[in-house]
Design brief:
The chain contains 13 helices and six strands. By secondary structure, it is an alpha/beta fold. It has a domain at 3-108 and 129-232: Rossmann fold. Strand 2 (58-63), helix 3 (70-91) and strand 3 (99-104) form a beta-alpha-beta unit. It is elongated and about 65 Å long. The N and C termini lie far apart (69 Å).
Length: 380
C-alpha cells in the first residue's frame, strides 16, 4: 500500500472515530515530526467533515518544562499561535470554544530550578530521573483529568508510532488491553481515559514524505521543521506527550530539556551550535558543568533529605554556585532562564532546610548588578 492510500485510510478512520461519540479529544503536540503529522492529518480530516459534524471539543496540548531548548520553545509557541487562530477560523467557526490550544507547565514546587538549586537534588540520571514525573507527567495528566472531570471521560490522541522505537512499540502493544467496542481506543492508566494513535503504522520515511508533500494546515513551514532536525543531526527522536513512565524519555532528543544530564553528551545541542546557534554555548557549558557537579560526591551532603545514611543533596555552597551560574547565563544570552517566582521559592527552600548563610538577593545583585526586588522606582 502506498502512502496516499495509507493517508486516505487514516483520514477516514479519524473522521469515523471523531463523529462516533461526544468524548473530547486531547491531541498531544510537541512540535516534532510525529505530532506535527498527527495534528495536520486530524485537522485536514475534520475540515472535510460537514460543519454540523464538528460537535465535540478538540484540545491541542503542549507541555513546557520551562527548561526546554529555547530555540524549540520559540518555534512551538509560534506554531501554537497559528494553530489556535487557524483552527478556530477554518474549522470551528460556529463554536470556537470547541477548539482549545493549551500549553501546560509544572507547578512551582515541581520545577527544575526549585528541585536542583532549592532542594539540592542532584541532576537527573538514569537511576534518579526525578524530572519526568514532576515536569512532564503531572502537568499533562492534570490537564487530561480536568477534561475527564468536566466530560466524564477523555481520549488522548498521540503521534506514537511502532517504527519509532522498540519501547514505543511495546508501549502501544501494552495498551491493547481494553478497547471501546468497535473503536481503536486503548484503555490508559488514567481513569476514564483512552489512548488513540492514528499514525502508529507509518514509517519515519512516510512521516517526512507526508510533511514535505502536504502544506501545513495552519500555515507553518514544515521545511523549517526538517531544517531543525538536520541541524541537530545525530538523534532522530522527539519528546512525545508524556503521560506515564512507559513513554520513552527525551534522553538523546533534540526536543528535550537543555539541562538534561541523563546522557553523557548533548550531541543535539552540540550540533545546533556547530550549525550556527553559537548563542547556545553558555547553555551547553552549564549542562556539562552540571554533569560534573553531579558526579562529584564531595559536592553532596552525607545524609539524604530523609535523614538516612545515603549520599544526600548538593551542599548549600554548591547550590549557591549553581544559581550564580544560571544568572550569568541570563547575562550572556538575554534569556530569562529562571523566574522571579522561582528565585523567591529557592530562598524559602534554603531557609526551610536550615540555611541562612546564602542569600538569593545577594547573589542576584552580585551577578546582575541590580536589586532583585522589582517596583516602580529606579533600580539601584
Amino acid at each position: 500500500m502506498d502512502l496516499s492510500q495509507k493517508i486516505k485510510l487514516i483520514t477516514q478512520e479519524i473522521q469515523e472515530q471523531y463523529i462516533a461519540d461526544n468524548t473530547p479529544w486531547v491531541i498531544g503536540y510537541s512540535g516534532g515530526k510525529d505530532s506535527t503529522a498527527l495534528l495536520q492529518l486530524i485537522l485536514y480530516a475534520l475540515l472535510r467533515l460537514p460543519k454540523d459534524k464538528l460537535h465535540k471539543e478538540v484540545h491541542v496540548l503542549s507541555n513546557d518544562t520551562l527548561v526546554e531548548n529555547p530555540a524549540i520553545v520559540n518555534y512551538i509557541d509560534e506554531q501554537l499561535r497559528l494553530i489556535e487562530t487557524v483552527g478556530k477560523k477554518k474549522l470551528f467557526t460556529e463554536n470556537p470554544n470547541l477548539f482549545q490550544v493549551a500549553k501546560v507547565v509544572p507547578k512551582i514546587e515541581d520545577r527544575f530550578w526549585i528541585n536542583l538549586i532549592g532542594k539540592g537534588y542532584p541532576a537527573p540520571n538514569r537511576w534518579f530521573r526525578w524530572c519526568t514525573q514532576r515536569m512532564k507527567i503531572n502537568p499533562t495528566n492534570d490537564y487530561i483529568l480536568q477534561q475527564v472531570s468536566k466530560h466524564g471521560n477523555a481520549i488522548v490522541v498521540l503521534g506514537s508510532r511502532k517504527a519509532e522505537s522498540g519501547n514505543r512499540a511495546k508501549s502501544l502493544k501494552k495498551y491493547d488491553l481494553e478497547e471501546i467496542s468497535g473503536q481503536k481506543f486503548k484503555k490508559h492508566t488514567l481513569p476514564n481515559s483512552w489512548m488513540y494513535s492514528p499514525i502508529s503504522d507509518l514509517t519515519t520515511e512516510e512521516v517526512w514524505q507526508y510533511l514535505m508533500s502536504v502544506p501545513s494546515f495552519w500555515g507553518g513551514d514544515n521545511k523549517k521543521l526538517i531544517t531543525m532536525y538536520r541541524n541537530a543531526s545525530e538523534s532522530s527522536g522527539e519528546c512525545p506527550l508524556v503521560i506515564d513512565t512507559s513513554t520513552s524519555s527525551c534522553g538523546n532528543s533534540r526536543f528535550g530539556c537543555w539541562v538534561c544530564t541523563v546522557v553523557a553528551r548533548d550531541k543535539s545541542m552540540e550540533n545546533l551550535i556547530d550549525n550556527g546557534e553559537e548563542w547556545m554555548l553558555p547553555l551547553l557549558e552549564f549542562r556539562d558543568y552540571l554533569l560534573e557537579a553531579r558526579n562529584n560526591d564531595d559536592n553532596r551532603m552525607q545524609k539524604s533529605r530523609m535523614n538516612t545514611d545515603k549520599l544526600g543533596p548538593f551542599k548549600f555552597n554548591i547550590r549557591a554556585e549553581l544559581l550564580e551560574k544560571v544568572l550569568e547565563i541570563e547575562n550572556l544570552t538575554n534569556l530569562e532562564v529562571i523566574s522571579k517566582q522561582e528565585l523567591a521559592a529557592i530562598q524559602l527552600q534554603w531557609n526551610y532546610d536550615g540555611s541562612f548563610e546564602f542569600s538569593v538577593s545577594d547573589i542576584y545583585r552580585k551577578v546582575k548588578n541590580k536589586s532583585l526586588m522589582l517596583d516602580n522606582k529606579k533600580q539601584s
